[in-house]
Amino acid sequence: MATSYLCPQDGTRADVSSLTWCCPVCRGPWDLDFEIAGPVRAGALPGRVNSLWRYEEVLPLAAPATTLGEGRTPLVPLTGTVSAKLDFLMPTLSFKDRGAVMLAELARCLSPARVVADSSGNAGTAVAAYCARAGLPCTVYVPEGTSPKKTEQIRAHGARLEIVPGDREATALAARAAADAPGTFYASHVFNPYFLHGTKTYVYELWEDLGGRLPDAIAVPVGNGTLLLGAALAISELRDQGLIDARPALIAVQAEAVSPLAHAFRAGADDLLDSPAGPLSPTLAEGIAIPRPPRAPAILAAVRESGGTFLTVTEDQIRDAQLDLAARGFYVETTGVACWAAVGGWKDRSVVVPLCGAGLKTGLAA
Predict the structure, then answer these.
(1) Strand 13-15 vs strand 4-6: parallel, antiparallel, or unpaired?
(2) What's the number of CA atoms in the CB half-sphere (13 Å) around residue 11?
(3) Which of 309, 317, 349 is CA-nearest to residue 334?
(4) Euclidean distance between CA atoms 325 and 160, whole angstroms
(5) Which pick of 107, 232, 236, 258 has the fewest CB atoms within 10 Å?
């Protein structure tokens, strides 16, 4: 069966060789109708490349020219029950490399006239780096107020930087308008499902490093939900391959200041509520400050199906968690400490948290 884009809302399909970045009927994000080549065999892994591309049977692309050696980040214990996966050790210092390499590799195969992306920082730096690797012209849209260290990194990779007045949603709208121009590949970590097939390798690495099993729970920070949805995808694939028996609970963590998904989950809703519960406030966790994530129904469904839940953390908890992790030897940016702030005291079940981005990208919380 040929790989194709598939709209989860109305069943519309499109060829992956097209530059159609969203469903033309509902303008929603694509899923990927993709059949894995076969089960991942643990015994075959030790002799393979030491990057996320070692899981070749379950990836929609192969033999990449754009790789920077991403993936296979360390898993280290923090307490007797909580372990951390150090995705801030990726080539561009964030977990977004997992998905960005997929987008850049796909774009390289399609040879567009230009690539555009939008981001609060980390996805933009990752797309800029991998487009540089692929030799593709790239423009990254970011909101005003984005960390200067992240914008510096984007420029260093040779990308054109567009700073958009307003918030993250205004930035996304500007990038989507540019994405409609002919010959443009929209390297959207939200709308393009190839990104999710990159982030799912996070869970395949956990499965390999834990000897063919997964922890009781996997905690992830959630804004647009790309890591959580990738994790859910991998868990389903591992179960379908007969490689795990139990499904770990997905613990979705949001900043209390911007927590539309948590509010919807607690209200029993299948989608975002018509209006946020209270005004949205600034948050230190800028990477998950997304008021209206386009894949909200899929995120809520994935958490419920896993038996998981949503947790929220305050700004003081974020500050304290960043300092606590630094005292343990891990200097992580403020978004990346949200999960530790939420589950660091757990003692009754095993859980893995991602340390998603390096502290050097934002500095210490004020």
Answers:
(1) antiparallel
(2) 0
(3) 317
(4) 34
(5) 236
| Percent of the chain that is helix, strand, coil (3-state, to 5) | 35, 15, 45
The total number of residues written for the chain in this structure: 366
The whole-angstrom separation of Cα 15 and Cα 165 is: 34
Bridge pairing between strands 249-255 and 217-221: parallel
Stated pTM of the model: 0.96
The answer to whether residues 71 and 201 touch, using CB atoms and an 8 Å cutoff, is: yes
Query: What number of other Cβ atoms are within 10 A of residue 72's Cβ?
Result: 18
Question: Taking the CA of residue 354 as centre, how many other CA atoms within 13 Å lie in the half-sphere pointing to its CB?
Answer: 35
Distance in angstroms (rounded) separating the CA atoms of residues 244 and 206 = 12
Separation of first and last alpha carbons in the chain: 52
